[in-house]
Design a protein that fits this description.
globular; Rossmann fold; alpha/beta; Arc Repressor Mutant, subunit A
Length: about 350
């Protein structure tokens, strides 16, 4: 998508738009080009705005309405799935034939694409200053590198032997991962870790949750944090379990939510209910910013540069590890963490 002129135009105008039209742009880029191929009403509903608000965006962009915008998208549309493009480029037939493009997206139906997409990541919009954020749209640090290369194998000579092409693709993915991780660590200023660590160390209880992939980072946080302090738990997955959790929350408790595009409605519902009970929120999200951003006491935004065809969980884990280090350092002077870890080790050996 990075080379698509329409997507580029949407990203370029994003900072200048009013909030309602920004919401439409986020939906379009989050699911580009598929979000543009339905009705105007469906697009507006996904963005949470009225159809006239959505329509004004396309007038502003110089199209003769939504139908003209749709036609332009259809004319330039091609598969935007990093994973599908990566796999398609790496088929033996392509390698042997020396296909210069490796692009077989036209042979795949829209339905198939829907089932194989793995969170296509559009370029992040220009950043707005927010001193409380992790460079919330990164006032503290710049985005680095090219965002979201179409695929790790995109620059590989398709005529190369399969083994060489695979090795080159792997090296490119490793390079992108390294650059993206450096950008993530640069984007999150140290004081932000300490603010979050203060909440995690002093909270009555800590509860963490995430989306389909980011829940792995939430699970990692709790597994490690539970060794440092008591009452660190994963948010249950079931509605009854979540209801029981919310019922006992107070203003002394902290929720850690990992929320990335496509933002999880179930995460939002839990956070809203927890906030109504007075619980505080540490939110880890992406450059666009989760709809929960306004609820967060500590807001950490990550660039999420890709390591290839798959959205990188490594960035979320890296930031989580640094957050754990800051929390452990805060607990260490009182001896709370050391005593607990020693007792835990002894019990592990016994059990």
């Amino acid at each position: 998508m990075e080379n698509d002129p329409i997507a580029g135009r949407l990203s370029a105008v994003y900072p200048e738009l009013p909030p309602g039209e920004r919401a439409v742009v986020r939906v379009l880029l989050d699911d580009y080009p598929f979000a543009a191929l339905g009705s105007l009403r469906a697009l507006a509903e996904r963005a949470g705005v009225s159809p006239p608000t959505a329509s004004r965006l396309f007038d502003r962009l110089g199209y003769g309405g939504f139908a003209d915008f749709q036609a332009a998208v259809r004319d330039g549309a091609r598969d935007r799935s990093r994973l599908l493009e990566f796999v398609t480029r790496r088929t033996p037939a392509n390698d042997q034939a020396g296909d210069p493009s490796g692009d077989q997206a036209g042979a795949v139906s829209g339905a198939a694409l829907d089932h194989t997409r793995l969170e296509p990541t559009p370029p992040a919009p220009a950043r707005e200053a927010d001193p409380a954020a992790v460079g919330e749209e990164r006032g503290q640090g710049a985005m680095v590198g090219e965002t979201d290369r179409a695929a790790a194998g995109g620059e590989v000579d398709q005529g190369a032997p399969a083994g060489e092409a695979g090795a080159s693709s792997w090296r490119q993915a490793a390079e992108n991962l390294r650059a993206g991780l450096d950008g993530t660590l640069t984007a999150v200023p140290e004081p932000l870790y300490h603010r979050a660590a203060a909440l995690l160390a002093e909270a009555g209880s800590v509860w963490a949750l995430g989306g389909p992939l980011s829940e792995l980072a939430a699970d990692y946080l709790i597994r490690q944090l539970a060794g440092l302090r008591p009452r660190a738990e994963r948010v249950p997955g079931s509605a009854p379990g979540r209801a029981r959790t919310v019922l006992d929350l107070t203003a002394s408790d902290v929720i850690v939510a990992y929320d990335f595009r496509r933002y999880s409605p179930s995460t939002a519902r839990f956070v809203h209910a927890a906030r109504a009970r007075g619980a505080r929120l540490v939110l880890v999200t992406d450059a666009w910013g989760s709809p929960l951003a306004a609820e967060a006491e500590v807001l950490i935004r990550l660039p999420r540069e890709a390591a290839g065809p798959i959205a990188p969980l490594a960035h979320e884990i890296a930031v989580t590890e640094l957050l754990l280090v800051a929390t452990a350092a805060r607990l260490a002077p009182a001896g709370r963490a050391a005593g607990r870890l020693a007792a835990l080790d002894e019990l592990v050996q016994t059990l």
